[in-house]
Design brief:
Strand content: under 5%
Number of domains: 1
Number of helices: 4
Helix content: 55-70%
Number of strands: 0
Structural class: mainly alpha
CATH superfamily: DksA, coiled-coil domain
Shape: flat
Order of helices and strands: HHHH
Oligomer: single chain
């Protein structure tokens, strides 16, 4: 078992330190774990809320509104479930030493991009190329 790395509370990965050094990896590992815990906590709250709101609403307009709200909430939860899978994949990449590198080019993904989107698997340039190709094929 690896000893826990000390990270100052205000630590932010910087361009002038070695890319994906132990401190940066620990920073992103903690960021991902925190994000995942927040999502799971929201999911627990949603499940409790849905269980409590399964009441009989006599007014059809109110019932329709309630059902629409529930459907939206369930769609949001489904997106978050997929996000948790991406967070888990990012944590695996950290463990396997692949985190922070573009899966297309193998180049480092900018720290700024990773800080904004810690589940990123492509550099900004590769992501933009991917989206352009996707758009072209979607228009066919």
């Amino acid at each position: 078992m690896k000893a826990e790395l000390f990270l100052p509370e205000d630590y932010r990965p910087a361009e002038d330190e070695p890319f994906m050094n132990d401190r940066q990896l620990e920073y992103f590992r903690r960021k991902l774990h925190t994000w995942k815990e927040e999502i799971l906590e929201d999911s627990r709250d949603t499940i409790e809320g849905l269980q409590e709101s399964t009441r009989n609403i006599p007014d059809s307009a109110d019932r329709a509104s309630e059902e629409t709200d529930r459907a939206l909430e369930l769609r949001t939860r489904d997106r978050q479930r997929k996000l948790v899978a991406k967070i888990d994949a990012a944590l695996r990449r950290i463990d396997e030493g692949e985190y922070g590198y573009c899966e297309v080019t193998g180049d480092p993904i900018s720290l700024k991009r990773l800080d904004a989107r810690p589940i990123a698997t492509m550099s900004l340039e590769a992501q933009e190329r991917h989206e352009r190709r996707e758009k072209v094929h979607r228009d066919d």
